[in-house]
Amino acid sequence: MARRPAGAREQQQGHPGAGGGVNDSALRRKLAEAEAALQAANAALEVERNRFRALFDAVPDPVSILDWEGTVLDLNKAGIAAYNRPRGEIVGKNIDILNPDLPRDHLAPVWEVLNRGGTYVVEVTNMRADGTRFPVEVHSAGFDDGGETRIVAVARDLSKRHEAEVRYRELMEVIDKGILVRKADGRVAYANPAAMRILRIPKGASLVEELALDHWRIFDEHGKELDDQELPSFRALRTGTISPSTVLGFLNLATRRLIWLSITSVPQFAPGQDHPQQVLSLFSDVTAFKRDITLFDRVQDLAHVGGWEWDANSEHVYLTGEAQRMLGLARTSASISELQACLRETERKRFHDALTRAVEHGEGFEMDLQGIRADGHTLWIRIIGESEAADPTGTRLTGTFQDITETKQAEETLRVQARTDPLTMLLNRDAVLEELEARLSDPSHSDVAVLYIDLDRFKVVNDVLGHAAGDQVIASAARRIQRAVATEGLIARFGGDEFLVVCLTGDDPERPQRLAAAILEAFGDAFRMAGEEFTITASIGIARAPEHGDRPQLLIQNADVAMYDSKRRARNGWQDFSQALADQQQQRLQMETHLRRAVDNREFKLVYQPQVELLTGRIVGAEALIRWRNDTLGEMRPDHFIGHAENTGDIVRIGGWVLREACQQMRRWRDEGLPIERVAVNVSYRQFLAEDLAETVAEALASAGLPGDALELEFTERVLIEDAPDTLTTFAGLRMLGVLLSIDDFGEGYSALNYLRRLPIHGLKLSQQFLEGVPHNTSDVAICQAVAGIAQSLGLGLVAEGIESDAQRQFLIRLGVKIGQGFLFAPGLTPEELALRIARHAPTRAHA
């Protein structure tokens, strides 16, 4: 390898160009200049640092510099003095050394505000080195420190302000002037003890309620009634200026006391605001001064408050003009005897005793007394009296009269209304319970009987014709009961279509049965409503005291048990309570208790009654029928427990279980290849109202993996007459699922044919009740023909149920009915039995 010349190597190591010595000199000069500039910058930085420290330490409040995690990076002299700690004990430590009560995540809201460019303000308690605490208001702001985000926090000591606030509150509490603070919206925020005393607000009472402006009437010195905006406090709020001393009269509408106050109102502003945030009213009671001037008498008249003054030594009574007018006296001066003569005889002694106590013991009094006007009409007056404070002998009394006749009449009206059912004007539930309690507590009247009356078929009328017609039926039924009972018992509307009659039995043991018979006879004539006639009867239960109960609720409960038994046996009758009925009631309660747990205990099962083609006998569907077996009660028939489940609401859970179980069984049949087109499930009216039925059905179908047309839902006619948006929405939702909808036992109720046209109904079920007399009973034949005609005209399917004879089957075939079910074909079968029945009986015309 050839060597490079030595000069070339030196040239590479040096700087390009000629004259290496010159270049070194220039470099040293530049380095010197840079060093001088750096020293100047450091000196300027030191000046700025000293200036910052001087400013930092000059701030009279503690100032801290924190990093993102809350570590104290710096602290000024005021902070070191305030916390009474050396700087080294604070800097480098977390802020919680100064604020030990702060929560762990206390910086999160601070950073949230600072990141938005805001300033975070909070009141906290700081701690000194000796453990003592002091309140501070901390203002925090963010700043950039060489690319790092820091917090500067200024803490202002609030100790002196808190001490001033305490002294201010103490002054408010002990001053003998009333002080009231209202917010800008008029709400009362504070009243000191003097205000409570002057305004006579009971201890513990609500200031908002007691000082509500609609509880007072307010007058100026000339007797003019003022509205809210004319009051000094509202004027100060509105104008933002002081409302100087004003004398106003305040009449408390509840106590009827009139007091006169001298009021000054001062608006109070929040920092930086130009509208008052609240108003402070300072007032004193000047009622005593107003008594001595004539304007007082005039305003008393305007407020319908009469004044009086009595000198016990002279027996002389002075009356203001309003008091004179109120009592109907001819002059303003009278004797105490003349004043007492205005009262009813039974009230005079009460008034005399109150006057005596007031004179002898200095006791004030307030009482409501009944009087008689000069025209003979009854008068109620409220009399307030107290010793004259300026009279050292204590023999002068002063006070007011207030005519409270209208108030008393209104109270009596309210008392009657509180005890009266507004529809029938009979006693209501509370009133009859009170009356029955009084009779049972009085040994001379404790031999009583209770008749519990319930109207039969009332709900049908109410559902078909509406609540207005239902109210007319209730009112008419009440009048019939009143005519039947007359003066032999108390009558009450106990609720809904239920009535109570309470009668004495001591003088006439047969009275309860006789009154029951009279009431049933009164219901013999039909009720006429909306151009229609309805037969409404009554079921009555009778219970007697003391053998059937010595307490109102127990006696009524036993009468209800007897009524229920009467309704169950045969409506339009009466039934005495007995121990056997009590046992039945206990059994019903036991049944309801077990019924409530039956779903959870898996005590239900389903059987399926085949639905067949009447011509061929081919099974095309099945209706799910519920069965219940309980270890305690044994096997329970549906007609024994379904009604109870309806009443208690348990039918909703039971119905949901039936729906899910039937869908799952239909899935199993399809998996087995059985030719069953659909399964029918009954839906309770309570179930229809109590849940989102369309959603429940959709979930049951989806869980079983079935299409909608594999399920048929059977409703009673009651669903049809519920013309509510929810009803229409539910039917529409079921229709969208593809579920078949039919009306069970069609024709048994008040069929609303219009709804068959409006609602998406697929079919009707002809009730077994109408098939019983077919084909020989002409009425049953006519009804079956009518129902079949309706179905054909509307294009609806028709299934006949309860077919028990071949004659019935042949009649239905001739009528055009294609599908039926009943004991002629099969009772309710287990799923396995139904599968065997299908396998053994291929479609034939064996019954044709």
Notes on the structure:
The protein is of the alpha+beta class. The chain has five domains: 55-161, 2-Layer Sandwich (Beta-Lactamase); 175-290, Beta-Lactamase; 304-410, Beta-Lactamase, CATH 3.30.450; 440-577, Alpha-Beta Plaits, CATH 3.30.70.270; 594-840, Alpha-Beta Barrel (TIM Barrel). It has 30 helices and 33 strands. An eight-stranded mixed barrel has the order 25-26-28-29-30-31-32-33, surrounded by four helices. The chain has a six-stranded antiparallel beta sheet with strand order 7-6-11-10-9-8. A hairpin with a 5-residue loop joins strand 9 (243-252) and strand 10. Helix 20 packs across helix 21 (638-648). The chain starts with 5 loop residues before the first helix and ends in an 8-residue tail after the last helix. Residues 1-19 and 843-848 have low confidence and may be disordered.
Short key terms for the protein model shown above:
848 residues; alpha+beta; Beta-Lactamase; 5 domains; eight-stranded mixed beta barrel; six-stranded antiparallel β-sheet; 30 helices; disordered N terminus; disordered C terminus
Topology:
Layout lengths: L5 H8 L6 H39 L4 E4 L5 E4 L1 H7 L23 H8 L5 E8 L5 E13 L2 E10 L1 H16 L3 E6 L4 E4 L1 H7 L7 H4 L5 E4 L12 H8 L3 E10 L5 E11 L9 E8 L1 H4 L3 H9 L2 E7 L4 E4 L1 H7 L5 E3 H6 L3 H17 L3 E8 L5 E10 L8 E8 L1 H15 L9 H13 L6 E8 L2 H8 L1 H19 L4 E6 L2 E7 L6 H12 L4 E3 L2 E3 L3 E7 L7 H18 L3 E4 L2 H20 L5 E10 L5 E12 L3 E3 L1 H11 L2 H22 L5 E5 L2 H6 L2 H12 L6 E5 L9 H13 L2 E7 L6 H6 L4 E4 L1 H4 L6 H17 L2 E5 L4 H10 L3 E3 L9 H10 L8
Parallel strand pairs: 23-24, 26-28, 28-29, 29-30, 30-31, 31-32, 32-33
Antiparallel strand pairs: 1-2, 1-5, 3-4, 4-5, 6-7, 6-11, 8-9, 9-10, 10-11, 12-13, 12-17, 13-14, 15-16, 16-17, 18-20, 18-23, 19-20, 21-22, 25-26, 25-33, 26-27
Helix pairs in contact: 16-17, 17-18, 20-21, 22-24, 24-25
